[in-house]
Input
Amino acid sequence: MIGIAVLGSTGSIGVSTLDVVQRHPQRFRVLALSAHRNVERMAEQCLAVRPRFAVMVDAEAAGQLRDALAEMSDPPEVLAGADALERIATLPEVDAVMAAIVGAAGLMSTLAAAKAGKRLLLANKEALVVAGAILMRAVADSGAELLPIDSEHNAIFQCLPAQRPEGLERAGVERILLTASGGPFRNTPAADLARVTPEQACAHPNWSMGRKISVDSATMMNKGLEIIEACWLFDTPPERIQVVVHPQSVIHSMVQYNDGSVLAQLGNPDMRTPIAHALAWPERIASGVDMLDIFSVARLDFEPPAPERFPCLRLAYRAAREGGTAPVVLNAANEIAVEAFLDERIGFTDIGRIVEMTMDQLPTVAVDASGPRQGLTQVLEVDRQARELAEQSIAGLAPTRVG
Ligand code: NAD
Ligand code: MG
Output
C-alpha cells in the first residue's frame, strides 16, 4: 500500500487526485488531507477516504471541521496551521505527497516533502517558480522523486528518456515545444481585453481548473510560469523552450530531438491522466479518463503566440533569463494582481502592468542556494516586498479606474 498525503485536497487537482486514488483501493491509502477553508467539501472527503489527519488553514476552520465530523466513527485528527501542513507532508507512513495548494502558499509544505525524500507529485508550479534552486537542491540531497503533474511537464517527462544525462543537450534534445491552448481570449481583439470580466477569464475553453490558474491561462502568465517550471525540472535554459499555441489541447507538449524526431504526448484534456501517471510511475493505471478518439479530434492546429497581446509571456521570459529573484517578483506581483482582478479592483490588462511595474521597481539579485536556509529567507523577504509594492501600485491605479 502506498500512503498518500493530498495538500490542497478540496481544489480542482485535489478532487481529481482523490478520484484516481479511489479507483485503486488496493494500491493507495490516503493518510492525510489539507484545505484552506472549505469545511463542507473537506468533511465529505473525510467521510469518503477516511484519512488519519485533516489539516485546515486556521483554528477556526479546524473547529468547524471537528463539528462537522462529530458523528463520524473513528474521525481523523483535525489540525490547523502551517506546522501541521509540514507535519502531514513528512509523516513516515506517507510515501507520496500531492502538492496541490495554489500559489507560493504551497512552498513550505512542498519543500518539506522534498526534504523528507518523498515521491513529490508537483502541481504547485509556483513553488518551483519562486524557489527552483532551493527545491531542486532539496530533491537532489534527499533522493526525493519529483514527478510533474502540470500536464505539459508531465507530457515532456513522458517524451524524455527515463535515464538521461544532466542537461538536455546531452540527451540530444534540441527544443521543448511547450503547448498552450491560448486561453479564452486567443481571438479577442487587444482593444477589448481591458473590459473582460473575471467570469469570462475563468471560462477556459478546454480545461476546468481553479480560478487563479484560469486567470493565468487567460493572460498566458500560466505559460510563462510553465517556462520557468520547465527550466528547473528539465535543467534547460529558456532559449530551448518554444511556446506553441495549440487550441485543441490534445497534444500536451512535445520534445524535438537532434535527429529530427519530435515526440508528443496526446490525450483528452483531463488532469486525471498526468495524476495517474505520476502516482503509478513507472507503471500505468486506469485514470477514469475517456480514451482519446483520434477521429473525432480530426485535426490539430498550431500557431505562434501573440506577445503584444500577452505581455505576461514576455515578462516571464524576462524573469527566466534574469534568474535569481526575478521569478519571485514576477510570481508575487502576479498573485496580488490576479486576486485584485478577481475582486474587480483592477481590469484584466492591469495584471501585466502591475507585474511589470513591480519587476521594474525591485532589482534582481542572485539567490544563494548553497545552504537551504539563507536562500529561503531571501526568497521569502523578496516575495513580501514584491507583494507590498504590487498592492501600492494597485492602490495607485484605482482612482483612474473609478473616474
Ligand atoms: P484550486 O484553487 O482549485 O485549489 C487550491 C487548493 O489549495 C484548495 O484545496 C485550497 O483549499 C488550498 N489552498 C488555497 N490557498 C491556501 C493556503 N493559503 N493555504 C493552504 N491551502 C490553500 O487550485 P487548482 O486549480 O487545483 O490548482 C492547484 C495547483 O495546481 C496550482 O499551483 C495550479 O497552478 C496547479 N495546476 C492546476 C491545474 C488544474 O487543472 N487545475 C493544472 C496544472 C497545474
Ligand atoms: Mg499546465
Remarks:
- The chain has a mean pLDDT of 96.
